[in-house]
C-alpha cells in the first residue's frame, strides 16, 4: 500500500446545475478552485446515468446505461491529473422508485439536483498507467 | 454550478442511540453543536427504514417503507437551515441479509447502532425553494 | 446520542495493493500513521468479497460470500481500538456488471485496485461491549 500525508488547500460545498453532466460539474468545480488533487462526496438525483463496470479479466470497462430518473444515494470520488486534465474519478450508488440500488463507476449522468462536498489538497495527484490492472492509478 | 469555500467550525464523531430516529439523531447532533451547515458520513444498522424517491415528473416524493432490520452500508448527507430549523438531508444505502442493497433519501429509520462523522462549517447554508425542481436547495 | 469534538491528527490518501485484503490494507495504513481513531472513505474494485449482515434478533453476524469481481462503489468506515488492536469498521457498497448493488459490513475482500482517504483524529476511540446490541461500540 502506498500512501501520502496531505494538507488541505481548501474545502467547498457546491450545488450542481440541473441538466448538466454530473461528473463534468465536479471537474468544473475542481477547475474553478484549481484543485489538482481532491476528495469528494456527493448526493442528489439524476435524470439518467451511464455506469461502468471494469472487467478485471479482459481489462476493459463495460458500460450500462439507465435511461430513467434515479436518486444518487451516495457518490464518492477523487480528483487527480490524467493526461494533463483534471479527472474526477466518480463512483456512485443510485436508486429506483422501488428502493432498488444500482452502482458502479459513474461515467456520465444528467443532473437533476446535486450537492457536493469537495476537499482540495496541496499535493497534486497524477494518474499513471498501472501494468497489473491496466488502469490509470495514482501514487 | 454554484459553489462556496467553507471554513470548518468543528468536527465530531457520534454514536446514535438504539431505538431513536436516525435522521433526528443527526439533527440533534447539529443542534447540540449549533451547526447551521455541515457535511456528514454515517454507517451502522437500523431496525426499519422509510426511504423516499423523488418523482422528477410529478415533482412529489414517493415513500417506500422497509419494516425489517437493515445494515446502513453508507450514509451521506448535509445539514442546512430549512424553514427556520436545522434539516439533515440524508441519503442512505441499506442492505439485507442476502447482501441486496436498497437506497434513497432516508426520511426515517429506527437506529439499531449508528456511527457518524460530522463536519460543521462556519458559513450557514439555507434551503430555499427552487422553481425548476420544486425542491428546497441551497446556494 | 453520544458525541465528541475531535481534532485532526493528519489526513492521508492511499492506494491499496492489488491482491491484498481490503480491510487489512486500511488497518495497515492506520498502523503506519499510528491512528487510534480515524474516519475513512474508499472506492475501487475487488476480486471477491465477504459481507456480513448483523442478525439483530439472534445478535450474530451472518456472512455472505461473493466470489466474483465487484466494483467498490462506496466504502465508509472508521478506525478504533478493539481488544488492543486497530480495527477498521468497514461498510461497503459493491456492484456487479449489470449495475446491481450489493452491500453490508465488509469483513474481507481481495483488492483489485483501491483508493482511500483517511482522516486521523487526536483522540483515540475505543470499542467496548454494548449490552443492548451485543456489539463492540465506541463512545
From TrEMBL, chains A, B, C:
CDD domains: DUF296
Annotated PPC domain residues: 6-139
Pfam families: PCC
Gene3D superfamilies: Hypothetical protein, similar to alpha- acetolactate decarboxylase, domain 2
InterPro entries membership: DNA_bp_PD1, PPC_dom
PANTHER family according to UniProt: DNA-BINDING PROTEIN, PROTEIN, PUTATIVE-RELATED
Identification of the protein by name: PPC domain-containing protein
Taxonomic path: Archaea, Methanobacteriati, Methanobacteriota, Stenosarchaea group, Halobacteria
Amino acid at each position: 500500500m502506498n500512501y501520502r500525508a496531505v494538507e488541505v488547500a481548501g474545502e467547498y460545498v457546491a450545488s450542481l446545475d440541473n441538466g448538466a453532466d454530473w461528473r463534468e460539474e465536479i471537474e468544473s468545480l475542481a477547475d474553478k478552485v484549481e484543485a489538482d488533487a481532491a476528495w469528494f462526496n456527493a448526493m442528489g438525483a439524476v435524470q439518467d446515468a451511464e455506469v461502468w463496470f471494469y472487467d478485471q479479466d479482459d481489462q476493459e470497462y463495460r458500460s450500462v446505461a439507465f435511461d430513467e430518473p434515479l436518486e444518487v444515494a451516495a457518490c464518492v470520488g477523487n480528483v487527480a491529473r490524467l493526461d494533463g486534465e483534471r479527472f474526477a474519478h466518480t463512483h456512485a450508488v443510485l436508486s429506483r422508485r422501488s428502493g432498488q440500488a444500482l452502482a458502479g463507476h459513474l461515467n456520465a449522468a444528467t443532473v437533476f439536483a446535486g450537492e457536493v462536498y469537495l476537499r482540495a489538497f496541496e499535493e497534486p495527484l497524477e494518474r499513471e498507467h498501472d501494468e497489473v490492472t491496466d488502469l490509470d492509478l495514482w501514487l
